[in-house]
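Entry for the shared binder. Reason: the reviewer on the internal report wants the predicted structure included alongside the sequence.
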Amino acid sequence: MFKKKPTIKPAAPLRSSDRRKLADQIIQDYRLKQPEPADLTPEQKAEATAAHTSLRNALLPDNLQAAKFTTTHGPELKKLNGTVYIGSHDGEETRILWFQVEGRMYPSVYTLWKNPGMVPLLHTPEIVIKKLQGGADLMTPGLAGGPPFPPGATKGAVTAIASTSKPSVPVAVGVCAIHVSALEQVQGQKGHAVENMHWCGDELWSYSPNERPSRQVPEEIEGWAKVLESSGLAEQVGEMSVEDEEDAGGVLLNGSNKSSAADGPTNAPGATPDGSTESGTKAEALDRADAPQLNQKELDNTFRQAFIYGIYHYKTTQPDAPSHGLVFPLSQSSVMSTLIQPFLPAFTPEQSQQMQIKNTSWKNVKKFIKTMDKDKIIKSKEKDRHETVVLDVDFDDQAILDFKPYRLPKKETMGGTALGRGEKATDSIDTGDDSVGQRLQVLSYYRPTSKLQPLFEAGQAGNKQLFTPPEVRELINTYIEQESLLSPTNKRLVKLDPLLGNTVFDGSGALDKEVLAKGTVPRDALIDRVLSAMNKSYAILRNNADPSTIKAKSGAPPKVHITLETRSGNKTVTKISGLEAYYISPRPLADELRKACAGSTSVEPLAGAAKKNEREVMEVMIQGPQKDAVVKALERRGVSARWVEFLDKTKGKKK
């Protein structure tokens, strides 16, 4: 349902009475509280009340906000309206905790992590989980760990789904399409088991009012582990082999492109009982999803080849640049974002998911760099025991000299990562941002002060109030010629008359006294003095706009500020602000940088930047020292380097 981003309206706080009423309805619908005996003592009643209040707060915290949303669902692109409930527990990041559709409340995965046992938990192999995260429904043969299955998994019941590799961590929420609890076997069965509503990785999961990255999926949740143990299901959750999973047909992808785009359920018109469709697109989609799995040796070789490809790319595309365009030392994040990720041959979301450094034998970039150092391809150094940086690269290593480029994905992968772009690492990212490719022109204007106004009137300025520097020069020259003020012996000197003496030179400075004493002034010095005494204004024109249609703003033209800062000890972040003046929307830029740099980004209001009743000024922040990537992204949006101001606050600090 949330594979495509829904339209979410601004959120508003929920009244306490409405929050309590909604929490009580959830407790009733999900049967989270046992009936209380009638003969409770006052102490027992007080304890029960406190427990009930605690349960309410666990489901719906005090800071809960509600927002309306609109999305589409199903093969017919049915338009759905609903409500999302946004809040946080114990100082955690604010997330969507519940969503309501057609009058029914569904918990998000974040809520399930905080409330173990609130819904039945079903299991399926990891390979099926990856397909669920593409919007597929869970088919009956994909069920693992049973029978028997949880007794609450009846038709129409909200249920959670976890991987057999992480049985205590729910990663999807759905609705039972059949009585799963009544199944006596799953092999050989056909049809839907669970209609997938929400999963880790969808737009609801990723939503954050502060543009924060999604929360990491835990390795284990103790509360759910105890639920599984107490119910006797922990021992039943077993692994399925890859062959068994493929034969089982554990998921059903949407039966048409239209349905897939809408992220709808799989009960498309014309579907057969086994989940196939008349169009046959299910088989095609499954073939694409069931890409061959790489073993660890193959995965290690893929990362090594991607790294060599990255070095080869810089060597061949920038042969004359110092170090072929690489700026040393290279941090671990830079190695990953510039030399490895853009050159991984990941053509599908499944391949993107598999091709992660944590799945290699090295497990992290630090160990990978050390291995490349042992192979004498690079020279590295450990810094402060926290990070290993690359000091140099042997561009003449035989592995680089013998390297043969391979095919890379030309477009952004379905997983949303900026993979395989080669020399077009940032140029070919389609951000849907109308500022990409725009043409900008910054015009400087000068407004005469009241003291200078007589000079401009005498120079036949008319009613014009704003002047460009060439226009000021032309007007001064016109006045000089009509008053015959040029020195007969030196055409570069201008004789002062009473008007120039009174309006331009006030006698306060040493230069003024010298000019007034001599009675002459160089023409260029006169024009520069007039310009410096005028009030400055500017206008930024977009796509050859008519200057007369743009209202000039007072002051000097603004700069786009790029700042490097150190946070959390030794972590460097890059901040960008001042984008709005150049018609750049911060959020699409943040999305592009997140993909191009393979690092998390955020967009937040710039503290103290906007005055009351003014438009909020936003600041983009991305992990790592990403100046070059930011400058390149700004150039794509027409921002010249002379309009950018760079500040490195990390210099001189202890690492």
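Summary line for the report: The chain has a mean pLDDT of 79.
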